[in-house]
Design a protein that fits this description.
12 strands, Rossmann fold, alpha/beta, 11 helices, eight-stranded mixed β-sheet
Length: 297
Amino acid sequence: MKILVSGSTGLVGRSLIPHLQGDGHQVISLTRNPRGPGDIAWAPLQGQLSLNARESIDAVIHLAGENIASGRWTASRKRRILDSRVKGTELLCQKLGELSPPPKVFISASAVGYYPYGTGETYDEAGPPGHGFLASVCQKWEGASIGLKEKGTRVVHLRLGVVLGAGGGALGKMLPIFKLGLGGPVGSGRQMMSWIALDDVLGVISACLADERYSGPINVVAPQPVSNHEFSRTLGRVLKRPALLPAPSLAFSLIFGQMARETLLADCRVAPTVLLANGYTFQCQSLETALARALRK
């Protein structure tokens, strides 16, 4: 397949491109800073993207967006987070819809932040949207691809949990502290985390490319969420370091505000109902396996 990928420099994108190429696919990067001869330039917030109308693209994997968890959500940062996802997706889908034919499948990142948090309930893909900022972003982000769906393209929304992979993401931020033996649970540690190994993110994307049963929202999480306390204890065990020092929730709330409440401190319980129903085989069902594999890489 000829596959267009955005967000190729992020945690998932860096591993996705060689993964797809290893499966025999031809990959084109959609990037703000073209480097290779086949790269396609775009400036999503400026509405700039030039696709050859005669370009033949079989599939698109859309991962681009402003980092959500890199700082406090000021008003301007919220606007950048929202615009980078919604305007970028609208622009990309508009241009893809002008191709003849449009791509067969459009796979777009979303997040488990779509669902309510702190309710104690477990949500599958039929669950209701939440009411916070992140839930609002996810709803608008997913809604931005409706025009391409109307063109007959199969649209998949990957509602990603906390992705565990080497070299970035949440794990990349935690490792320096935990390697020093200074890590521990955040806040009470009772909040549940819905996580997924990076290898399984790649496996799910491959399944979505090949299997037409995948359409609409897909919860990309492992079958067993864990508490933040259990996550910290497991990471410490894998690193052979103590992980006993708690980080007070008040400190995180004062420093990061709403971002901390909706991400670091949020109780998030999500089930991968569609993946299990379609027979997806997880490479990492246990957290310890996922962390050990990520750290080996």
